[in-house]
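Entry 14. Two folds queued back to back today. First construct below, sequence then structure tokens.
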Amino acid sequence: MGLPSIPGIRKLVKQYRKFFNAKARREKIANQSKTPTNPAQLHLSVMASIAGIKDISPNGVIRRILESGLNTDNNKIYQDFINYGADEAFWELITRGTGYKEESPDIMRLSAHILITALSRTIPDEFLKGLDVFISSPHQSYCFEFISDWIHSDNSHTLYDITRYIEEELKLPQRFIKLEIDTLKDSECFPCINEIILHKFMNDINNQIINSDYIISIVEKRRICAWYDEVKVYYDGLLQIANMHNFFLSHSSGFHTTNPKLIWEEYTSEYYLMDTYYRLFHKSYAESLKIYKPELQDSFTLVKDYAEGLYKNWFLGQLGNNWCDACADNLRDYGYVMDIPKQGDFYKSKVANSNNRIIVIISDALRYEVAFTLAEQLRRETQSQVELTSMQGIFPTITKFGMAALLPHDKLSVEIKNTAKTERLAVLADGIYTDSNYREKVLKSANEASIVLNYKDIISMGFQQCSALVKGMEVVYIYHNKIDSASHSDESTVFIACDDAIEELKSLVRNIVNRFG
């Protein structure tokens, strides 16, 4: 095996006679990256070989033992330690590194000792009374670094299961619930700490006690802590509640602008943020239902009720009333608000006078605040010039009217269209129906070199087929329907559909650049 022939090594080889009795085990020692040169290293090499790990280090051996099960009698690797006579050396290694020592050593209690000693680095001793038997202050640094390295390794899921078991055995949630968030905020050993912090914040929100800046600071701090991803959706939801509350505080006196154009400018520069916060909260809430943590979900549902009240009753209620009052005269006299670009003028102002091929992507039900997010991501992810502007929608703002308004026309009209069984409202552009199968006809009436495409068709087309379709075309209308279709099937999916729509539209932009030139 290439071991040095010195008394200490020779004595130890005799001690491990049973282990070295097999050629395969001798070869494992011989093939290790570092040849043991003293008894301590040989002990470690034997334990690493039994554990089946390449990491010949105290940390590697200890972690492997803990990963193999907290029940000492059923831990196969530890039982092999006993079988080959390595158990005594293992516990000596444990005592030196962690300070754990008991007359009848136990792997479960060892794991509790390492975790609680590590925890004592970030939580004062006064809050850990009754757990003193698991704490060795001189070994605090070792235990903290041991746990920290494991938490941030690719194998952290094995530690997660251990921490869950220990926190339940030691009734840590019942202990931590009595502590302040400030006491817990820097600790990451146990997953229940995240749940306790979230529970406390949710309870405060449901009691109308909201310190927005404090919530934001704690969420940012916990982002880099262990097990954050397990409860990320709840933290994200609370972050949006804090943002909504800060918006409320900034506008607590209400909305009183009398000029509708100014209200429009205030919305497109600032007020849209409240819509974004509300959407992102609901996205988090929808995702929370997929992972469903019973200890948090009921409280999170009450937080949702708070968000609904703030958004619908205060924001939509007060801003809506302010808007209606401000634009009432314009709507009565003209049917639209003066000095704000109109959706009905879109084709004339944006398409008709273009000197180059123009491609229009129409994403049904995509609101201004979603467009703002899309514009930001396009700026960041593409080498393109992105400009975000706004127009007032045609009234009523439903699909068949909005789609018609974006087509070329001098006059829009409405008629009742009779079918065999029903009557339905139809919108016409200069006498031509504007239903989906007529839109290309309307476009061609203004410019023969026009074509209508559907997002799903483009994505599934080959490069040559797609290029051939738009060859020679000056106006290309592409219809996209992610958000609106979600609203018809299941309203609870609309908020997640907004994110999906953003991703699809970015993909479509890349496809247009690559396929259409």
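Second construct, same run, same settings:
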Amino acid sequence: MKKIEDKYKVLNHIDHILLRPQTYLGSNKPHTSLKWILVGGQMKREEITYVPSFLKVFDEIITNSVDESKRNPLLNKIEVNLDMKSGIISVKDSGGIPVVIHKDHNKYVPEVIFGNLMSGSNYDDTEDRIGAGTNGYGAKLTNVFSKQFSISTCDGKNLFTQTFTNNMREIGEPKIKRNKINHTEISYLPDYEKFGLDGLDESHYLLIHKRVIDVAGCNPNIRVFFNGEEIKIKSFEDYVKYYKSEYFLETNKEKTWSIAVAHSEDGFSQVSFVNTTDTYDGGTHIDYILNQILSQMREFFQKKHKVDVKPSELKNHMMIFLNATVVNPSFSSQTKEKLITEVKDFGFTYEVPEKLIKSILKSEIVNSILDWINQKKKADESKLARDLNKNLDKIKVEKLIDAKGKDRWKCSLNIFEGDSAASSFRKYRDPQTMGAFSLKGKFINVSEITTKKLIENHEAMNLMGAIGLKLGQDVDIKNLRYGRILLLTDADTDGNSISALLLNFFNKYWPTLFDRNMIFKVETPIVVSINKKTKKKLLFYTQTEYNNWSQKEDLKNWEIKYKKGLAALVDDEYQEIIHNPKLTKITKDELSDEYLDIWFGKNSELRKNQILK
């Protein structure tokens, strides 16, 4: 049983920070994720293991320098040095802190700033701040997590130096000297054990280097050095070039907002900053810009391409770079990875220029979205086809007079134009080898149809089920229910049109049916001549055939009957076309894709030209 004194404790502020670092600095555990680092002069996303809180203590120091540059025009230079051997990290700028006694605390101002938790210059909420500091922890957290933390600063008159040790618990005496060179330098030896590290490793070196480049990119008015080498960045555009060679960039006149947009091949990504703070989780500033861009892009796709693309789908093809200035920013946590300030409180407005929107709409971004739309359409249709194919074998086919034979390859399916035309078929068919399917009027035109629309057409589904055809699958002889498909339509314009629509259907989805010589047109008589004396009957299938015969005969001896369609045939005539059909095999040569496109495609001009020939 724990004592009351062991169960309930009161910690001093330093001990609380060290015990619960995640409250102040973010996670103190190793994370492995994709992070941007400089590789061969270019930013690349690579999997890297790092401790977020360790990076944050460095960020607190360099952010102090950036914030001070907005108040002090002398601060135009920042130098960062990492000593891999000793593990010491230093940040030096050309500013300077007043080396005077703070009357309220009776201590020098630098000691108040860096050696007292909750101290700072950001507590006047009536003042518009465009820095990143807000809560008064900042560099003191770095001090708390350091074995040694040294300050050197000069205000142009006096040089102040002081060293803290043992996680800010032990405070050295400040030393004051006369000096005229303005600067502030923070040099600290992190307490690596508190981060689970043995020392300064390559991963953290690379990530700190990247952060220094961020600072240079967001503040082109500051000369930034890393381990003695200047980072050559003169504008935010120079920074974007580390990531992309092709992009569209705009900066407002006040130079408070800079935005760049580039094509992304692996989903949406963003690199954004608020007052130089790396908002790697984005926030309201990213939403503010994206909403303007995506609303116009969505309208563009609706008008020009007749497709409604969701904003989330549009942005997946984009990479956004944003360097924003926000007054008195609010973040989701002390680690400041996400901006939560409402747009109305930004202190600035930014309207995405029309020039930038036009550039995006003419770019590879749009082509990429169109490719994705087509791929998604195919994927959706493939899924619909798979779902349909699972059910096709189970559907009860309407209007099917099925053949009964087991050897299905020897069976033929006769496709009739209408129910009445198929009524006499039952009388004369061979039930073992002959089946029939009756169409209801005109068949569907599949030239420009989607899979979804095709599936909604019951007649097409029934015909597929009758034959054993599967969408998206080549003809499988083992699964086919019929070895031949015979088309029996009226010998007139409507009948020919129905035949052509059926051929168009088979050609689009199962062209190998023609290669396998499985589709035939059954010719039907248009004229029947009956000898009045002998009752001999002659069937003519074309007007030319009839004309040639009639010129040689005395028509007084014959009864001439013109047949308007299948329904006009009498029983023996039906028996003739069923048991002794005059067949025309439909081949790919005869079945011209070009002609099918003319008659059934979208372009009506092609049909007009064909008719006028």
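Quick look at the second one. The radius of gyration is 41 Å. The first strand starts at residue 31 and ends at 39.
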